[in-house]
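Journal club prep — side note

Before the paper discussion, L.F. wants everyone to see what a predicted structure for a comparable chain looks like in token form. Sequence:
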Amino acid sequence: MNAIKSITILVPVFNEAASLPELFARLDRLIAQPGADSNVVIVEDGSTDETAFLVEQAITGKERYSAIFLSRNFGHAMALTAGLSHISESSDAVFIIDGDLQDPPELLQQFVEKMNDGYDVVYGIRRKRKEGFFKKMCYKLYYRLLKKFSNIKMPLDAGDFSLISRRVVVQLNKLPEESRYLRGLRSWVGFKQTGLEYDRDRRSGGKTKYSIRSLFKLAFNGIFNFSEFPIRFIGIIGLSSILVSLVYLVVTLYKKIIFNTVPEGFTALIFAIVLFSGVQLLSLGIIGEYILRIFFQVKKRPLYIVKATITNGKPSDD
């Protein structure tokens, strides 16, 4: 693999007005470094605050900045997808960071040095997270469960913060998934990959956009998109239920034949009904989740809609 020369820094933003001044200041310093051949693509994901206005104001007239404005909030994964599909063919690699600056852009050179050792993907591994105890434990548990049950090899404690080569970008852009889990797709495409440990910073401003609901959705996308475990879990529960029922039947017949007694039936019956009703509903829910994903996929709606763009500092309506 040839040495990396030209890099696009891809930054999705949503309601990040409080973080933008520091973000642009740090990006300006980064791309102004001697020998740097970098440009920046901002993806504005339908913010409801002043983010879109501030992005337009900050980058208009700056040749090394471009922006994509989406027609509404499509979500972090779709914002990244939009950005990757608009990467210039002259870029050798794409450096993905979050607009809240929890992933330090200044680590770019370390990522480049690692990639120049012959890797197509260098992903950040979160050594320390400056977040609440509960959220850190949830992330820790989630990544380990995903690694255990996934049908592809996924690194622990690695998010979207990464440097990916041009040929990885090309392959990612070919994938048509409607429910996208980018870090999973990044692992799925293969190529030579490695991690780089770093300490994750606190947000530079504003509030996190990942609510508990959003985190659960992210977890569901990871598990349902890259693991057969949920559907196999139904079979395991079903088989276990049959075995428990057979054991209970044998015990009941034994007591009837040997002691001529039959256990009180009402409590056991209610318990059995509630248990197996719960199992059936859980099974239907898991199957329904897969069907729902198929339903949205076959509609073939566009993954995102672009409202406007700024290319090399020049505004243009789409």
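L.F.'s comment for the group: Strands lie at 6-13, 37-44, 65-70, 93-96, 121-129, 158-165, 193-200, 306-311, 314-317. Keep this in mind when we get to the figures.
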